[in-house]
Amino acid sequence: MDECIRDEIRALKAYEVPSAQGMVKLDAMENPYGLPQSMRQGLAQRLAALDLNRYPDANPEALKAALRQAMGIPSEAALVLGNGSDELIQMLALAVAKPGAVVLGVEPSFVMFRMIATFAGMRYVGVGLRPDFSLDAPALLEAVRTERPALTFLAYPNNPTGNHFDPQVVESVIQASPGLVVVDEAYYPFTDHSFLPSLLSRPNLLVMRTVSKLGLAGIRLGLLAGPAEVLGQVDKVRLPYNISVLDQAAALEVLSRPEVLQEQAARIREQRAVLADGLSRMPAITVYPSAANFLLFRVAQASRVFEGLRQRGILIKNLSAAHPLLADCLRVTVGTPEENRQFLQALQDSL
Predict the structure, then answer these.
(1) How does pLDDT run across 233-252, given as a tens digit for each residue?
(2) For every residue of 126-195, which 3-state class applies, written as one string?
(3) CA quadruple 292, 293, 299, 301: dihedral, nearest 10
(4) Cα(180)–Cα(279) distance, integer angstroms
(5) pLDDT score, position 8
(6) Which of 346, 348, 328, 330 has its CA nearest to residue 338?
(7) What is the rounded CA–CA span in Å between residue 327 and residue 181?
(8) How big is the CA angle at 57 (ends 51 and 59), to the nearest 5 degrees?
(9) Burial class, 151, CB count within 10 angstroms (exposed 0-12 / middle 13-18 / buried 19+)
């Protein structure tokens, strides 16, 4: 009886997560470093004390306070928490999904912007990036003018390209937009640029972050920061108890030791430079600048190279078919020094 399903859903391809069993996993932009033993012990004690027979705190103020402190979020900004950034994107789409409302984004970018717009029954308009992956400012501003989007998403840095967009162009989009503009800062631990300082002066600006890239991908926790009058409305579509007892407790324990996560992020930044240098030394490879915890690179016969890496136990992301601008492009997450060494050797052997 699948004819009951909406045509636009039937036309979608499900988001696939490949098995990484037995592989060096460098495909999902995860922090490669685990928690130190002292933090694991504290986490075990905190989790053991939980009352799992009770529903979680529906409005966890202690967790919000910890996130504010860890990320430098202004106290005047409201917060809404989500089960990862994906749920926040869905909540935003549901909140603005009037008949004829448009979601605007750029391409290539995070695929869930388009997919969730489709889930919500909205029309998605994607404006192509320039060949160097920078924003096409005239085309983007023209789309804002003609489409009058209810919701615009800009990833900063962008995924899967890794680059920062020109902040002046982003600012011009915020000023020109009749609807909400969401700057997705999922990769903020690996860059010094942010739109948080503009949050209180731009009534239509929202900043979205996650703890996934920080090193807590397993607990699924994201946040949306912005004006209280806007987020108060978005919060109405949040399902109750959406952040589990376990997730709240784990986040509180780890965020109590921010220096550990900061040190890990610094190591990832250092290894990003080492990995970029190694890629740049290989013939026929173009590696693109990145302000995130991954690198995008272009190589001839990328699909063949990708399979060669898989056969050698290395899993990265093949983006060759994702968008015309990504033809022959692969994306690798920055790993530990040993993982990066194994990747570079396997890549050399696969060329």
Answers:
(1) 999 999 999 999 999 999 99
(2) EEECCCCCCCCHHHHHHHHHHHCCCEEEEECCCCCCCCCCCHHHHHHHHHHCCCEEEEECCCHHHCCCCC
(3) -120
(4) 39
(5) 78
(6) 346
(7) 29
(8) 170
(9) buried
Query: pLDDT at position 114, please?
Result: 96
The type of residue at 85 is S
Alpha carbons 295 and 114: distance in angstroms, whole number: 23
Q: Which domains does the chain have, with CATH numbers?
A: 2-35+259-350 (3.90.1150.10), 54-256 (3.40.640.10)
Average pLDDT over residues 36-60: 93
Q: What is the DSSP string of 9-27?
A: HHTPPPPP----TTSEE-S
Is the confidence at residue 1, as pLDDT, over 70? no
If you write DSSP's letter for every residue of 331-343 in order, what string do you get? EEE---HHHHHHH
Helix locations, the chain, DSSP H: 7-10, 37-48, 61-71, 84-96, 111-119, 137-147, 167-176, 228-234, 245-255, 258-280, 302-311, 337-350
Question: Which structure tokens are listed for 94?
Answer: 């549901």
Confidence of residue 14 (pLDDT cuts 50, 70, 90): confident
Instruction: At 149, list the tokens.
Output: 């989007």
